[in-house]
Amino acid sequence: MTARVCVFTEPHRGADYEDQLRFAQLVEACGFEGFFRADHYQAMGADPGLPGPTDAWLTLGALARETSRIRLGTLVTSATFRLPGPLAVTVAQVDRMSGGRVELGLGAGWYEREHTSYGIPFPPAAERFDRLEEQLAVLTGLWRTPVGEHFSHHGDHYQLLDAPALPKPVQVPAPPIIVGGRGPKRTPQLAARYADEFNMPFKSVAETAQAYRRVAEACERTGRAEAGRAPLVLSTGVVVAIGRTDAEAQRRAAALHVRSALPPEDPVIGSAAQLVDRLGEFSAIGTGRFHLRLIDFTDLDHLELIAGEVLPQL
């Protein structure tokens, strides 16, 4: 199989900028396609995640200047965190800083505690999805507006009047947008309408196949192909803890057993061969891109093990 493999990280568990820089540069040196990070302002368990959170887009802007090849993005930015107009400016700027290597994963937001902690409004789920849909419309509208023209939007939650729609990203017509999640209705619809990639995070092959079928049906309902849009890239997130020995794999998996607010996941714990087999199963259901979630920013050997024993087999 031929697969696109990225590394996904969670700096809110405890990583400063230097940790992320060292990791991202090794991701690039090892031959992975991209470095993606979560966009959270708080750890999700008892561990406070010292030294504390780092802003996703500020970090990615810095990494854009310290890397040269890898894709950079979020899985995922919460629509509750930022207004869509300024977010469009931020992402376009980081895209220019990177020479056109940025991708935006955008979601409705789900972790209420970080909103409460930092004074971020957290409306009910239906309103969060309404806001997400409007943000996607605003972002794509701003980026696709020709230079010299203006963009307006009159929605229930956001109003833009004669925005100059600048700066423009390097990528034309826009940086790739990733929409994903386990939701059975609105998530597939939004992915079909606005996204370039649909991501199913950290679930079994069977559950992921079901999600892919739902998004394929949504693409048919919305007439995506008839509109001349490219097929969605189907991706999956895979939690990884592998080792050269079972003891090494179990040591890396210890953090997965710590109680947190995250929903149940389906990790790969074991050998490089087991990870290759799992990725093969995902590939068989149409997965074209993988986001491997690695927990420990100090465990550079884990990254090198995957690069040395897994990537060559894909």
Which characteristics define this entry?
single chain; 314 residues; alpha/beta; two-stranded antiparallel ribbon; 10 helices; 12 strands
Structure in words:
The chain has helices spanning 17-30, 56-66, 84-98, 112-118, 125-144, 186-194, 205-222, 246-253, 272-284, 300-309, and strands at 4-9, 34-37, 71-74, 77-78, 102-107, 151-154, 159-163, 177-180, 197-201, 233-242, 268-270, 289-293. The protein is an alpha/beta fold. Strands 1-2-3-5-8-9-10-12 form an 8-stranded parallel β-barrel, surrounded by 9 helices. Strands 6-7 form a two-stranded antiparallel sheet. α2 packs parallel to α3. The protein is globular and about 60 Å long. The model has no long low-confidence stretch (mean pLDDT 96).
